[in-house]
Write a structure and sequence with these properties.
The complex is a heterodimer. Chain A contains 13 helices and one strand. By secondary structure, chain A is mainly α. Chain A is globular and about 60 Å long. Chain B has seven helices and eleven strands. The chains are: A mainly alpha, B alpha+beta. At the A-B interface, helix 2, helix 3, helix 5, strand 1 and helix 7 of A face helix 1, strand 1, helix 2 and helix 3 of B.
């Protein structure tokens, strides 16, 4: 698999091929499996993603602790805001839905992780629904997202415990932005700018879950992560370029993650988890879990 | 080498790839050591597993794994109820395994019939796991492939005999690591295979007079 996006983009331009095709060919070579088999596996992942969205939209899910659940349904049926009737609002609802299912021990695709699992399916399936994009192109986009995630794994990290939330929902936003930009007709170069634009917007984001549980703020971080991805896609498709190359933005994420105090890396020692309300809720809810 | 299917995956029951999916895989590996669902188990949770495990369903995931449920099996949610219905005797304890142990470490003691084993393993993140100890012997087992772990006396031709047993059972060796502390001392072998070696393979290896013990662990990654 590629270790730099610059190399992938250069190859894509040299062979006049989308990043998705390069990703599938590299994966087939690395793993000794036919491309069709890899597409099938990505197709199954897409089915699970859609299943989680459908389940989460119903609104009757509650997490173990009761801290989160039911908010995806509010975006679906609640009063209109400035984004009503746009794909934007639907994408936010989908991101909440997947993450509410995750918190309730439902079945999701960790992409790249369980904690950041809402962003990519929300952006890809939400935009595909809005533009009537067929499934084989969504599967292509999942391959592109996999390539971008692989580069982030190589250069930085995909773990909140190592790099904070910038390495989970931040990486997911970069993956979703690059993949959807290509899915919507952007060039490989534009996809690279979309990755950089999304990832720069999440730099420094800490991992501070109440009680250490993948619930609060994780559910909402997936929605705001998806929003950052949408902003990046819109800018990249408009021809906006980010001066720092995506690989260097990813390196920066890694550097910030390594310097991040351990309180901000999934330990519930700082951030929202350490607020008076955060501490109180975590204590109450953990007691409740033990009783149930 | 990073695979795009590791990035877009695994399909799993939430909420945490390390505390739920990885924990389930550790349960599945411990189950293999006694060749099926253990009747009794002691599950000692260390570090973050002990502190936040209940909220992440780590207890349900390990118990589900011991009962043979995989990380994407929705029965994980009800694993503790199923365990009680099945009359299985599993206990949890919070402990400190070692000061420098990985934060998501668990020691699982399993019993099934006359078989008994103790395994120490950690969930490293993104669902990846590492078994570091079986019955007090240091090992490195990832569950990415089917694995046979062997402790044997350091005798000539031992590898050839074991390779012969695998070949007779149509099991292809993917990797083989051999270490020993000193000449003539205990030799450790960790063999990863492409096909799943059955219990018969384990029994045949155990029957060799110079083999101290042998365990078989299934591939548990996606």
């Amino acid at each position: 698999m590629y270790r730099t996006l610059a190399e992938a983009i250069a190859d894509a331009e040299a062979y006049e091929m989308p990043l998705s095709e390069l990703a599938l060919q590299a994966e087939a070579r690395d793993q000794g499996r036919p491309v069709a088999e890899i597409r099938d596996a990505l197709g199954r992942a897409l089915e699970v993603m859609r299943g989680a969205i459908a389940q989460g939209m119903t609104g009757d899910l509650r997490s173990n602790s009761g801290l989160v659940g039911g908010d995806a349904a509010k975006l679906r049926t609640g009063p209109a805001g400035p984004l009503a009737d746009t794909p934007f609002r639907d994408v936010l609802a989908r991101a909440l839905a997947v993450q509410e299912v995750n918190a309730a021990m439902g079945v999701i695709v960790a992409a790249p992780t369980a904690g950041g699992a809402g962003v990519l399916p929300a952006v890809l399936t939400g935009l595909a629904a809005a533009r009537a994009i067929p499934d084989d192109r969504v599967i292509d986009a999942l391959a592109t997202a996999g390539l971008i995630g692989a580069v982030v794994a190589e250069r930085a990290s995909l773990s909140g415990a190592e790099g904070g939330c910038q390495a989970e929902t931040g990486a997911a936003a970069g993956m979703a932005a690059g993949a959807a930009t290509e899915m919507l007709g952007g060039s490989p170069r534009q996809a690279g700018h979309a990755v950089a634009l999304a990832q720069q917007g999440t730099l420094g984001l800490v991992c501070d879950p109440l009680g250490g549980l993948v619930e609060l703020p994780c559910v909402f971080r997936n929605a705001t992560g998806a929003a950052i991805a949408l902003a990046a896609i819109e800018m990249a498709l408009a021809g906006i370029e980010f001066a720092i190359p995506a690989d260097e933005v990813i390196d920066t994420m890694g550097e910030i993650g390594r310097a991040m105090d351990v309180r901000y890396r999934e330990t519930a020692g700082g951030g929202l988890a350490a607020t008076p309300t955060g501490r109180r809720l975590a204590k109450e809810r953990l007691v409740q879990i033990k009783r149930s | 080498m990073v695979s795009i299917l590791d990035i877009i995956g695994p399909v799993m029951v939430g909420p945490s790839s390390s505390h739920t999916a990885g924990a389930c895989r550790l349960g599945l590996l411990a189950r293999c050591l006694v060749g099926g669902t253990p009747q009794r188990a002691k599950i000692e949770l260390h570090g973050s597993f002990a502190r936040t495990g209940e909220g992440h369903g780590t207890d349900k995931a390990i118990v589900g794994g011991l009962m043979g449920f995989r990380p994407d099996d929705e029965r994980l949610r009800e694993a503790l109820d199923i365990m009680e219905r099945e009359g299985l005797d599993y206990d949890f304890e919070k402990t400190t395994i070692a000061d420098d142990a990985h934060p998501n470490t668990v020691r699982i003691t399993v019993e099934r019939g006359d078989r008994h084993a103790v395994m120490v393993g950690a969930s490293l993140g993104a669902g990846r796991v590492l078994v570091s100890e079986i019955d007090g012997y240091p090992v490195e087992i990832t569950g990415n492939l089917h694995t046979i772990a062997i402790v044997a006396e350091d005798v000539k031709g031992s590898i050839a005999r074991i390779a012969g047993i695998l070949a007779d059972n149509s099991v292809n060796i993917a990797t083989l690591r051999l270490t020993r502390k000193q000449r003539g001392g205990d030799a450790f072998m960790v063999i990863e295979t492409d096909e799943q070696p059955g219990e018969a393979v384990r029994d045949a290896i155990r029957a060799l007079p110079w083999v101290t013990w042998a365990f078989r662990l299934d591939k548990v990654s996606a």
